[in-house]
């Protein structure tokens, strides 16, 4: 589990702000932690909760061994409430249930904490309910909202939270850590690929062991081959291959992320940045064909279409419609 000492090394500014707040007993009633996938948002929220409840802290550093710390890590502390999307969004009913929970006095202390993951998926009604919650701050209640998409959080919620922006880890350091893991063997190529998708060692290890991420990478290169060899088949490929393999929200998001990385690779090599490829190897024959096939103008058009597709996916547009519109645009 993450410690403040470790956090200082990877997120110096955020750790300084939070540790200073805990040391001076000036914890804000609401935090909005934003950062790209794998930057440790959940781990930081858990660390904050442990710091608030730990019975045997060393300064601000929670012991991570007491009953309170262990229950928070396991998700079983009665006064630390996690709210996660129910399906594709966080619904009004979930926030109503949370508010009812908070009507009751804390079971073991005078403090309560609630952590909302993927806060950008709050429905309009749920966001308004949270807003009312934030407008009536209780000094004994701490809200921690987590998001990858700060721009999708309504301004009135942002204005009532202390916003903490996490920085991506140095990819080269992360790649070295992956290659030195004792649990498994991750080669340089896959470490470079993984570091473009996540900054979290545990998540990278899980993705590597499940191997599905590499199958999605293969699917992406197959799609690019279809675009080069027979553009007329792209629509058929999306229905027969892409959508039949990528069935859940997380996989669909990864597919779009890897497509973005792949077309970035092609553009990078065209402008001489061969060392920055993450999906293709520099000697990949398909990469050479793609460089000849796609003009920089078209690559920029495709990248723009991919970003729009990701935005639509985050707005819960049906994946089939998103991908159909994407292939028609490119």
Q: Could you describe the 3D structure shown?
A:
There is one protein chain. The chain is α/β, with parallel strands linked by helices. The chain folds into two domains: 4-165, 3-Layer(aba) Sandwich (Rossmann fold); 211-329, Zinc Finger, Delta Prime, domain 3 (Up-down Bundle), CATH 1.20.272. 56% of the residues lie in helices and 8% in strands. It has helices spanning 4-10, 12-23, 41-53, 67-74, 92-103, 124-135, 155-158, 171-179, 188-195, 201-210, 212-229, 234-245, 249-270, 285-293, 296-314, 319-329, and strands at 30-34, 80-83, 112-116, 141-147, 162-165. The protein has a five-stranded parallel β-sheet, with helices on both faces. Helix 6 (124-135) links the parallel strand 3 (112-116) and strand 4 (141-147). Helix 5 (92-103) packs parallel to helix 6 (124-135).
Sum up the structure in keywords.
single chain; Rossmann fold; 5-stranded parallel β-sheet; 16 helices; globular
How are the secondary structure elements laid out?
Elements: H1 4-10, H2 12-23, E1 30-34, H3 41-53, H4 67-74, E2 80-83, H5 92-103, E3 112-116, H6 124-135, E4 141-147, H7 155-158, E5 162-165, H8 171-179, H9 188-195, H10 201-210, H11 212-229, H12 234-245, H13 249-270, H14 285-293, H15 296-314, H16 319-329
Parallel strand pairs: 1-4, 1-5, 2-3, 3-4
Helix pairs in contact: 1-2, 3-4, 5-6, 8-9, 11-12, 11-13, 11-14, 12-16, 13-14, 13-15, 15-16
Question: How would you summarize this macromolecular structure in one to three sentences?
Answer:
The chain is of the alpha/beta class. Helix content is 56%, strand content 8%.
């Amino acid at each position: 589990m993450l410690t403040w000492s470790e956090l200082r090394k990877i997120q110096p500014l955020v750790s300084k702000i939070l540790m200073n707040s805990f040391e001076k007993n000036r914890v804000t009633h609401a935090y909005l932690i934003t950062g790209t996938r794998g930057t440790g948002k959940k781990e930081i929220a858990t660390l904050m909760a442990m710091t608030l409840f730990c019975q045997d802290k060393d300064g601000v550093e929670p012991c991570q061994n007491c009953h309170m710390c262990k229950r928070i890590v396991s998700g079983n502390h009665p006064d630390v409430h996690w709210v996660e999307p129910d399906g594709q969004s966080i619904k009004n009913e979930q926030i109503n249930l949370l508010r009812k929970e908070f009507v009751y006095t804390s079971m073991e202390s005078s403090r309560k904490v609630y952590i909302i993951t993927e806060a950008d998926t709050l429905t309009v009604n749920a966001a308004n309910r949270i807003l009312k919650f934030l407008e009536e701050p209780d000094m004994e209640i701490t809200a921690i909202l987590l998001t990858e998409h700060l721009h999708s959080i309504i301004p009135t919620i942002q204005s009532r939270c202390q916003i903490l922006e996490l920085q991506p880890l140095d990819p080269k350091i992360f790649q070295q850590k992956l290659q030195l893991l004792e649990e498994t063997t991750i080669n340089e190529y896959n470490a470079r690929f993984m570091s473009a998708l996540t900054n979290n060692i545990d998540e990278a290890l899980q993705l590597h062991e499940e191997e599905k991420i590499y199958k999605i990478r293969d699917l992406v290169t197959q799609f690019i081959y279809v675009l080069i060899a027979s553009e007329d088949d792209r629509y058929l490929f999306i229905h027969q291959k892409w959508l039949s393999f990528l069935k859940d929200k997380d996989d669909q998001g990864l597919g779009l992320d890897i497509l973005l990385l792949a077309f970035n690779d092609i553009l990078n090599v065209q402008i001489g940045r061969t060392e920055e490829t993450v999906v293709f190897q520099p000697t990949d024959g398909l990469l050479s064909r793609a460089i000849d096939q796609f003009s920089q103008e078209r690559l920029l058009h495709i990248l723009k279409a991919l970003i729009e597709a990701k935005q639509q996916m985050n707005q819960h547009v049906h994946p089939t419609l998103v991908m159909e519109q994407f292939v028609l645009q490119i």
